[in-house]
Amino acid sequence: MNELKSQSTLSEAEEMLNTAQEELCRPEEDVVHYNVCKHAYKAIEKYMTAYLIQHGVHIQNSTSIKELLNQCRNIDPNFKDLDLNPLMDAEHVDRLMVNLHTALEFIKIAKQTRSLVGLN
Predict the structure, then answer these.
(1) What is the pLDDT of residues 83-103, one digit of tens each?
(2) N or C: which end of the chain has fewer CB within 10 A?
């Protein structure tokens, strides 16, 4: 059961990351940076959730991204290299400067998370 749930969550994460990257393929004036950030953020959450499920950790829907990261770090110290600080205001998007630089940063962190969970 955990394997099926983990694979399903990984598929969702892949879809979210692909959606974020596709948004950046639009002409520059049509890119909605908020959408890139939102989808990359969700991908990061889902990658870590899938990783934890795969390792037998029960995840609740209310688990914060910080807590997901801490739990991942308890399993694999390599997650200490993952810096989620640029994402921390994502829950309060009005405080987050959403522009191309931020969107690219979110994508970079999503790809780093993807790699840490074992996908290349």
Answers:
(1) 998 887 655 656 667 788 899
(2) C
CA atoms within 13 A on the CB side of 77: 0
**Do residues 79 and 98 make contact, with C-beta atoms less than 8 angstroms apart?**
no
The count of structural domains within the chain is 1
Burial letters for 74-100: b for 16+ Cβ neighbours within 10 Å, e otherwise? eeeeebeebebeebeebeeeeebebee
Instruction: Show the domain range for 87.
Output: 2-116
Are 75 and 52 in contact, with CB atoms under 8 Å apart?
Answer: yes
List the CATH number of the domain containing 52: 1.20.120
Cα within 13 Å of Cα(106), Cβ side: 33
The number of beta carbons lying within 10 Å of the beta carbon of residue 37 is: 26
Model pTM score: 0.92
Judged against a pLDDT cut of 60, whether residue 39 lies above it is answered with yes
Please report, to the nearest 10 degrees, the dihedral formed by the alpha carbons of residues 66, 101, 108, 84 taken in order. Answer: -10
